[in-house]
Structure to design on (411 residues):
């Protein structure tokens, strides 16, 4: 058993020595390869690069809003009375001026008839008073009283006619009636809810945006709309009004857009997501976001020119995942550094790595690091007296003959 243990220790030391020799030989060869030739030009730092390209950039903002009816009113009576008849069905499309509800008007009609009779009587009295006053049979004061009596009865007649008109309720605009809350024969008071009327031929969409974008918003701008109720469809609208004031609590401005709804599928109260396109630039300059080097309040990019880099300040535009728009500082077709710029300085020589070469270099570095870790693990195992569990040691252990001991029998 001791011989087996010593054999494993010797084998582990041999494996560790082999890995160590391999590591130092590779390090020497790589350092020799990376060192510039004596008398030759110095090699540049390896970097990855890309070209400044043109592409389409859409300047847009997202918001959430609520759909509202273009016109909305609760149908309520203006007088206390009994409902004689209801002339609409729930959910019915009605037009402006259509009769909706008729209230009991018998009392108002009787009062109006009495007022008309009194007005006719006072009109006759005024005519006779004018004839008598022309012959100086009555005073001017009597004539004035007759004229005033006629005016009062005429006013009373107009009042009762207006009250009689309130016994019929008509649609104030085109719309769809809601669920009614009363029945024929019920006695209703002035202001009591009867049913809702919604004008949904076109809807209003109210949403808020930060005040930062206020200068880019204008009436007539198109908006794209999506809704959870219709996940596979999209709708469009046009901004038709902007709130003149800004909410001081949220620093947002209220925007209202109009959305066509000819089929009536969209309903007031729906939750909507709004995508507002502010501008679209087809020939915008685009680079990878990792090429940007922020320094203080400015941003810079390394431009490759004749094998050397030049630090150029740039002005950024819009950002999208992994990319950024360049407003000023670069031109299309320029080669810029996107990886390895942390070790660079203005005017330093560089060597651009192809995409395949860079992938191979990364793979070699990974394998080299893995071999170093294995060698260190084997050396630590040998120093602590524990056999290393490397593949070579496992194979040798599997082929090592096993020692056997005679079985002992208990008395």
């Amino acid at each position: 058993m001791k011989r087996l243990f010593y054999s494993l220790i010797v084998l582990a030391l041999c494996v560790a020595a082999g890995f160590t020799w391999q590591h130092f030989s590779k390090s020497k060869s790589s350092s020799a390869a990376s060192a510039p030739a004596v008398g030759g030009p110095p090699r540049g730092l390896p970097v990855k690069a890309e070209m400044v390209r043109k592409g389409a950039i859409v300047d847009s903002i997202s918001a959430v809003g609520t759909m509202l009816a273009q016109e909305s009113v609760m149908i309520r009576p203006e007088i206390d009375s009994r409902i004689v008849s209801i002339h609409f069905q729930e959910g019915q499309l009605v037009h402006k001026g259509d009769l909706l509800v008729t209230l009991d008007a018998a009392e108002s009609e009787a009062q109006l008839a009495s007022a008309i009779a009194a007005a006719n009587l006072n009109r006759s009295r005024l005519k006779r008073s004018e004839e008598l006053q022309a012959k100086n049979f009555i005073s001017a004061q009597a004539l004035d009283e007759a004229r005033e009596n006629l005016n009062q009865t005429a006013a009373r007649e107009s009042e009762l006619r207006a009250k009689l008109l309130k016994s019929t309720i008509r649609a104030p605009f085109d719309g769809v009636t809601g669920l009614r809350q009363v029945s024929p024969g019920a006695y209703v008071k002035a202001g009591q809810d009867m049913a809702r009327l919604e004008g949904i031929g076109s809807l209003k969409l109210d949403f808020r945006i930060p005040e930062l974008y206020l200068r880019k918003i204008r009436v007539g701008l198109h908006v794209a709309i999506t809704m959870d109720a219709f996940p596979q469809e999209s709708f469009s609208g046009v901004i038709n009004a902007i709130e003149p004031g800004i909410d001081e609590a949220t620093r947002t401005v209220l925007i209202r857009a109009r959305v066509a709804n000819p089929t009536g599928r969209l309903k007031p109260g729906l939750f909507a997501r709004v995508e507002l396109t502010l501008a679209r630039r087809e020939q915008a300059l685009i680079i990878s976001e990792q090429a940007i080097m922020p320094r203080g309040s400015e941003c810079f990019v390394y431009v490759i020119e004749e094998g050397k880099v030049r630090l150029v300040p740039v002005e950024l535009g819009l950002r999208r995942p992994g990319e950024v728009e360049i407003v000023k500082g670069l031109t299309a077709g320029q080669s810029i550094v996107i990886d390895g710029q942390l070790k660079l300085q203005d005017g330093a020589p560089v060597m651009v790595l192809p995409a395949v070469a860079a992938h191979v270099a990364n793979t070699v570095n990974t394998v080299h690091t893995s071999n170093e870790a294995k060698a260190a693990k084997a050396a630590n195992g040998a120093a602590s007296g524990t056999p290393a569990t490397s593949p070579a040691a496992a194979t040798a252990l599997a082929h090592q003959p096993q020692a056997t001991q005679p079985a002992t029998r208990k008395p």
Residues 26-40, 356-369, 378-411 have pLDDT under 50 and may be disordered.
